[in-house]
Predict the 3D structure of the following.
Amino acid sequence: MKALNLIVNLTNAISLVFILIIALAAPTIDAQVILPVYLFPEFLTDFTKWYAGEFGNYLIVDKPFFFLGIAWVQLLVNWPLSILSLYALVAKKHWFSTTCLALGFSFLSAMAAILAELLGSGRASQQLLIFYFTFLGFDFLTILRGLLPISPKVNHSLRKEHSALNQKKTS
């Protein structure tokens, strides 16, 4: 049981980093891909330009249509899911696993399309590939977290509540 607790806590910590990055990047960087630049403060647009130049992220610069679609999904689906996941993790909600799975598989779908483009085009720098493959690793760990059971403390509490409800129904 201690090993499982350690694995759950470790994946929680790693998922927290990944989810925080999505919660911050979606409204700041991804939104700049689809919304007019004048809506953003100069320091954010400067950061995005620096990132695109430093990592050679031609997708942000060229804005191919598939990437625009992914940016919309990031903003309208993954950003709210990341906020819900952060809340669920901090508040120790039993549905944290569900939001991890939803966010993980949604992000995995986007990563599949992006990595196919990066690898197939031959235009991606080594640094950009490392960047995206790192996020793919975070993504797999978030999916793994969604497949793991709820922490034993929360699980025990839920079982007690469920048992109490069943006793009330039978009385």
User: Anything to note?
Assistant: Residues 85 and 99 are 6 Å apart (CA to CA). The two ends are 34 Å apart (CA to CA).
